[in-house]
Automatic annotation (TrEMBL):
Domain (GH3 C-terminal): residue spans on this chain: 454-568
Boundaries of every GH3 middle domain copy: 358-438
Family statement drawn from the similarity comment of this UniProt entry: Belongs to the IAA-amido conjugating enzyme family.
Keywords: Ligase
Any Gene Ontology CC annotation: cytoplasm
GO function terms (MF aspect): acid-amino acid ligase activity
Species this protein is from: Pyrus ussuriensis x Pyrus communis
Protein name: Indole-3-acetic acid-amido synthetase GH3.5
Top-level lineage group: Eukaryota
InterPro entries given in the database record: GH3, GH3_C, GH3_M
Amino acid sequence: MEPSVCGEDDMVRWFEDVTENAGLVQTQTLRQILELNFEVEYLKKWLGDIEIKEVDACVLESLYTSLVPLASHADLEPYIQRIANGDSGPILTKQPMTTLSLSSGTTEGRQKYVPFTRHSSQTTLQIFRLAAAYRSRVYPTREGGRILEFIYSSRQFKTKGGLTAGTATTHYYASPEFKIKQEKTKSFTCSPEEVISSGDSKQSTYCHLLLGLFFSEQVEFITSAFAYSIVQSFIAFEELWKELYIDIRHGTLSKRINLPKVRKAVLGIISPNPILASKIEACCRELEVLDWFGLIPKLWPNAKYVYSIMTGSMQPYVKKLLRYAAEVPLVSAEYGSTESWIGVNVDPCLPPEDVTFAVVPTFSYFEFIPLHRQKQDYNLVTDDFIEDKPVPLSQVKVGQEYEIVLTTITGLYRYRLGDVVEVAGFHNGTPKLNFICRRKLILTVNIDKNTEKDLQIVVERGSQLLSSSKAELIDFTSHADVLTQPGHYIIYWEIKGEVEERLLGECCREMDASFVDHGYVVSRRNNSIGPLELRIVEKGTFKKILEHFLGNGSTLSQFKTPRCTSNKVLLSILNLCTIKRVYSTAYAD
């Protein structure tokens, strides 16, 4: 399934070839997955004793999708748990599994085990190299240059059955493929492995910043898995810059770094550089006056772009990132999940809001459930969409929304990913997807249904009013309160700057009036949903939420602020940190 190619042009040529007849490649990909794993317990349950190798590939595709049911993680969890507990039989994959990934847990409030194999690392390397090939056509970088990467590993641990478990990013950074990627793309991260795997995100961030500054002239681009990590790192920089330039001046390392391996590794790299330190100090004093606008080009003058996932729940951080980046382009990174990589950004010159992802037809076998938004019979609504039967990749239509279904070589069969995407067009024969939202992240009290994207639009409109007082929205989340009557939405904001209560009231009213879902509007008019409540939380609240997830095994590389939560621990943090409450006056007349 992997191309035996070397250079960037070869990577692009390979992708052009496999997407030319993506439908046929998908049929072959499914056959390869089933031929490899057809004897496993899960498939035998549905396919019985069908002789896979004797069946024509197209017939096999039809048989597979008619006999094997769609599955959620809950359906596969008992099988995965048996593997975690040490059952080494052919349960989901023919080859015994030695590693499990942990999802971030930010979507549903708990982490899930997901199968991880060498194939997972290989496809990660493949998509990174493919993406780099497309990026280099638009933004060429110098060979041997450095990357300022805000990347973090968490500790790996053993399950009850002795399997290695940890986040997918942790597994990848520990794999040979991570080193191969640097060699093949001729770009090297500023930070050594000891910094990446320190297990302390604050100490890692300080060292990433310090080494990024030390190698500032060599940095070709700035990256992290998620835009959130870059924004948080530069917010930390605003507080740390005086310590950082002193360390650059003297070739020392702040006492805040107390992990011996990290200290040794970093002090083995840096050396005193008074000239660079003076330059950084002057730049920072200038930037402080500008509220850090243009921080990236000022401190990293050779950076060609900033590269990260900027779609979905990362969209709210793009505005802040634009301030730091100024004229440096933002390039949206690839589309994937803990379960599988899905698509590559073949148009890196497009701004994040316009980006689409061309599906890589060799990574997994993809199906798409057509979704239609409810428009009538609101009292009968039990879900946010009406579904049609899944269709293969070759039958998707432009403009239609779908939920993605995966069959992977790592042992997931017709697995519902929960991501809603829209087909925006095609790259040769493969669809280009626009990520819409996570299907489960929905605010609902009554007959109302609001997605993550609906919430983001509403918060964007409300927070625009803050500019009149020179305040800034740092982060947000929400909760549908159904314990009080009538139930209502609560939106939590953390703000930088002082805002009068009158203005907060206007923000709250604007958000309430901006929800356009018919069920919400009708329910607000007849008061079956109460006024929207805006709660302002104290500075540092969302850092406490981050620390909660980090304490439960997530990494900063993997973290995404949940945009809607019913998690009791998170709600407890949010409510304890609430310093002001405002209710909407929309629909009061």
